[in-house]
Design brief:
By secondary structure, the chain is α+β, with helices and mostly antiparallel strands. The chain contains four helices and three strands; from the N terminus they run E-H-E-H-H-E-H. Helix content is 42%, strand content 21%. Strands 1-3-2 form a three-stranded antiparallel beta sheet.
Length: 76
C-alpha cells in the first residue's frame, strides 16, 4: 500500500489532532518524522516537518475530513 503526504506540521499538537480525526473516520493514517521534530524543533525545516500520511486511495476523503477542522491546518 502506497502512502501519500497530505499535510505537514511544525508541532505535534495539530498533527495529532489531524491524525485522530482521520483514525476516527476509520482511515489508516500515520505520522512521519514526529519524534525528530519534537526532540529538536530546529530540524523541522531540514526534514520537512511532521508529515501526515494516508493511503493513496484515501487522499480525497482525508482532505475532505481535514478541511472541516481548522485545527488541522498545515504549515505549507
Amino acid at each position: 500500500m502506497a502512502f501519500v503526504c497530505i499535510r505537514r506540521y511544525d508541532t505535534y499538537v495539530p498533527a495529532h489532532i489531524a491524525l485522530a480525526k482521520l483514525r476516527e473516520a476509520g482511515m489508516e493514517a500515520h505520522l512521519q518524522d514526529e519524534h525528530t521534530v519534537t526532540i529538536d524543533p530546529l530540524l523541522s525545516l531540514a526534514v520537512g516537518g511532521i508529515k501526515l500520511l494516508v493511503p493513496n486511495e484515501q487522499v480525497e476523503a482525508a482532505e475532505k475530513i481535514l478541511c472541516e477542522h481548522p485545527l488541522t491546518d498545515n504549515i505549507g
